[in-house]
Design brief:
Elements (H helix, E strand, L loop, with lengths): L9 H14 L3 E8 L2 E9 L23
Antiparallel strand pairs: 1-2
Length: 68
């Protein structure tokens, strides 16, 4: 988020965390605390790509079924 963080408003960080949690589909939100105060909020979003499955659970390459 590019909004400025107001250290004097204790509700500010809660709102930022809430917005980040709602916006991230896959990932994490981390709150960094120093001396009992929230000093940093990190968010990481993972992008999951659909990849063709060429290996089965056994790790062996699967062959498509023949039309017989």
């Amino acid at each position: 988020m590019s909004q400025p963080f107001d250290k004097n408003n204790s509700e500010d960080w809660r709102e930022i965390v809430n917005a980040l949690v709602k916006s991230v589909k896959f990932g994490s939100v981390q709150i960094v605390i120093q001396d009992g105060n929230v000093v940093q909020i990190d968010s990481t979003e993972k992008i999951r790509l659909d990849q063709p499955q060429s290996k089965g659970a056994s790790g062996k390459k699967q062959t498509p079924p023949s039309g017989k």
